[in-house]
């Protein structure tokens, strides 16, 4: 797109955000257009950066030695949280423009990022060393072994479209808390929020060498973010194929891969009508918040046959109440998905499930990237709609056997193992599901995605390589443990 004298489309001013390489604003030959999914207009441009930009950022990161005290790190992180809170309207507008999620959802996103920076700041005060006495065995000595954690130095962070602020925060805040330098490549679909966050961090007092944000097409800049020799660790959140490609290309480099999910909400047959209503609230909110674009969204609702006929109308009633449409309207519950192509694919999966015997109970019609909350009952578990990760506000109900062993086996039958939610009031059954589900998280009476920004988060199987995110675990991943011992 060429910039004319009139750069405003409708009421939206097209903004250009250059890369931020160690605090310097850097452009490239070409630009990547950022489109508002609601009406497909261009709302901004970022540079189409290349390998040379990432290379320069990693060169700066690896040669800079941060010397911030714990107190200074804490000050920067807490100041960033305050600035995010002070500018939440403007930042949530930007998230909505890039991603198309409702203002309700984008304001929630800014609130979550506030938590990430606040908790990271507080954790700076916690000394992470341990002490081991050595006089423990017959041949023990009067010594003590001490541990301390040292920063890695240069971290490569590759972030997804679905949380343009919070996913970047989850990588940047723990990096700062541990005195690391970090180079972020946000996805080309929603890159502007990360660039604005960089400015906020610089304003909060972060030495600019500690953070760079580079943008560009994956084919131009992606490999450098994985293979650059100065990288100590790659942290990636995104889809399974890219995650596995990174694992292959990165070789001996450390990687923290947080990949897709196919999370079930499991409704057991010991529930009365009031409990089923509560479970239906969780089912619809879990499937539609953030337009269903969360790796931990409810992607399958497994309800035992005995209560299914009572449960399904409750889900339908709640889905019909959701207001979907203009994401900037504050009364809108559900905005768009990331682009029309995604919306069309998910709608196609709904129709394929119907051809295989599912009942579409509610589908008020797709409009471009605006996908309504589609309720589908009696979905065959083998259908693509629920075996693949359907990243949209679909509410697929699977009628599951009343036998718990069979239901656990059904739940475990996909390639993913991220999170799950289980609704039951029977303590023994809670224990059975917590033990039996092959996932990283089991939440009782809560959506699969429930967590605090500090608690360990991540999956197994195709959902990730077992390393956890969440502020505490990320801070561990971003450091090396050094031991030393002294006569004692």
From TrEMBL:
Keywords: NAD, Oxidoreductase. The active site is at residues 258, 295. NAD(+) binds at residues 159-161, 185-188, 239, 389. Coiled coil: none annotated. It holds the Pfam family Aldedh. The keyword Plastid does not apply. InterPro entries: Ald_DH/histidinol_DH, Ald_DH_C, Ald_DH_CS_GLU, Ald_DH_N, Aldehyde_DH_dom, ALDH-related_metabolic_enz, Put_phosphonoacetaldehyde_DH. GO terms for molecular function: lactaldehyde dehydrogenase (NAD+) activity. Residues 30-483 form the Aldehyde dehydrogenase domain. Belongs to the aldehyde dehydrogenase family. NCBIfam families: PhnAcAld_DH. PANTHER family: ALDEHYDE DEHYDROGENASE (PTHR42991:SF1). This is Phosphonoacetaldehyde dehydrogenase. It comes from Shinella granuli.
